[in-house]
């Protein structure tokens, strides 16, 4: 008992020290705003919508004071009261209800999705200050190496990336929102009126509720049925808000890094000797070579800054991606398996939706990771394409060092070992296929 109390005291002191350091770090920024409209270059942050305004306001409050806004605190408490209890009830039901493989896998699918949502909240709320530091990546003045004569071309590169980012994030959030909203329509697809209208059978499908998990008590009677329906509807709404917000943040940060790498690569690729020598000189003099070397040093420093931000992003989201991709794979396997084994059309639609939700989210993260790796590796080729042969030896040595660093690209990682890219997506597809084959053989054998 004494050791437990000592452990609690140390844990409490550690949390207080961490919170104090976070508050000091935040307040040391000099009261700068977290992210104003003028700080970004064309990113559609949605600052005009009420929901996004509230979201950014709560983050700004934490950035300025080091304390959680009451809206953020209420959201965290509500998510734990609804989401965490939903997971506990869903997982515990497996031990109280007699189930076969199909019913058991379907029962744990939604609690796993709920655990994903709760885990997203945990990872962000546990170290909010560290996450907010990454928002520096979004600012349009993140790079300082762009010379005046290259600003036009660099702005064009950045503008193309901004358009792609806005479309990518918008479509990803729309799909995420659509799939989760479609889950809320499941009671109507299982209803007697729907089945009779489309001649799919007689009588409503039982159980007929929003989600597929079971409960360790009798729920299919009034008024418990109505309470469960409202409870699950609130859980789905919280999942929509949480998944959309955290997915958008990660995608914006990754695509911002991609944009900065492309601008840096454009500057290096178009680094010419004619930018530094006068019109009357055929060869570069010492002054021109010194200016070219200083321009390269500015590019190297920005490259170091981008790599540091990329490493911080990969480190901060490593545990998040590890857990999220792992559970998404499980959800995808269960959804495909039950979709092929289900007898009712409504159940097939339900599991098809969950399969699309789980595996498409994995595909989005893998695609983003691949874009980040490609942009990082392209810097290596673009440095080589500058007119290094006309520069002095120390310029070539510095450029060589930059190429060595670019040869180790920035990458999102899961489990600190596996890169989150298209190659990983292919491996995940093979894993899902193998798991489905095993589950199907178990059904055929029984």
From TrEMBL:
Region (Disordered): 1-22
Main location: membrane
GO cellular component: a single term: plasma membrane
Spans traversing the lipid bilayer: 72-97, 234-258, 319-339
UniProt feature, compositional bias: Basic and acidic residues: 7-20
Keyword field contains Transmembrane helix: yes
Family that this chain belongs to: Belongs to the insect chemoreceptor superfamily. Heteromeric odorant receptor channel (TC 1.A.69) family.
UniProt name for this protein: Odorant receptor
């Amino acid at each position: 008992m004494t050791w437990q109390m000592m452990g609690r005291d140390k844990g409490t002191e550690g949390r207080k020290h961490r919170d104090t350091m976070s508050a000091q770090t935040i307040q040391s920024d000099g009261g700068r705003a977290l992210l104003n409209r003028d700080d970004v270059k064309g990113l559609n942050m949605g600052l005009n919508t009420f929901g996004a305004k509230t979201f950014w306001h709560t983050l700004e409050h934490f950035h300025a004071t080091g304390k959680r806004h009451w809206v953020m605190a209420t959201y965290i408490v509500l998510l734990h009261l609804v989401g965490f209890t939903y997971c506990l009830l869903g997982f515990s039901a497996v031990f109280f209800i007699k189930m076969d493989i199909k019913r058991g896998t379907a029962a744990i699918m939604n609690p796993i999705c709920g655990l994903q949502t709760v885990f997203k909240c945990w990872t962000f709320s546990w170290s909010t200050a560290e996450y907010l530091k990454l928002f520096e990546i979004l600012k349009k003045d993140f790079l300082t190496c762009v010379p005046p004569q290259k600003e036009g071309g660099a702005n064009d590169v950045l503008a193309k990336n901004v358009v792609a980012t806005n479309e990518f994030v918008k479509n990803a959030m729309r799909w995420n929102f659509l799939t989760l909203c479609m889950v809320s329509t499941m009671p109507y697809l299982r209803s007697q009126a729907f089945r009779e209208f489309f001649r799919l059978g007689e009588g409503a499908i039982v159980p007929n509720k929003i989600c597929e998990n079971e409960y360790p008590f009798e729920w299919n009677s009034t008024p418990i049925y109505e309470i469960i329906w409202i409870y699950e509807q609130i859980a789905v709404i919280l999942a929509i808000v949480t998944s959309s917000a955290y997915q958008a943040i990660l995608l914006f940060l990754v695509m911002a890094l991609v944009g900065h790498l492309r601008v840096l690569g454009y500057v290096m690729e178009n680094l010419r000797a004619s930018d530094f020598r006068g019109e009357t000189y055929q060869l570069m003099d010492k002054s021109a070579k010194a200016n070219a070397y200083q321009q390269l040093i500015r590019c190297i420093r920005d490259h170091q800054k981008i790599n540091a931000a990329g490493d911080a992003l990969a480190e901060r989201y490593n545990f998040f991606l590890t857990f999220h991709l792992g559970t998404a794979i499980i959800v995808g396997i269960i959804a495909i398996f039950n979709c092929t084994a289900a007898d009712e059309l409504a159940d097939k639609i339900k599991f098809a939706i969950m399969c699309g939700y789980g595996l498409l989210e994995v595909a989005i993260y893998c695609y983003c990771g691949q874009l980040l790796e490609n942009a990082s590796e392209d810097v290596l080729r673009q440095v080589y394409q500058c007119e290094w042969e006309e520069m002095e030896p120390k310029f070539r040595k510095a450029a060589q060092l930059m190429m060595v660093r670019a040869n180790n690209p920035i990458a999102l990682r899961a489990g600190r070992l596996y890169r989150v890219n298209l190659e990983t997506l292919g491996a995940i597809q093979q894993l899902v296929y193998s798991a489905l084959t095993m589950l199907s053989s178990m059904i055929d054998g029984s």
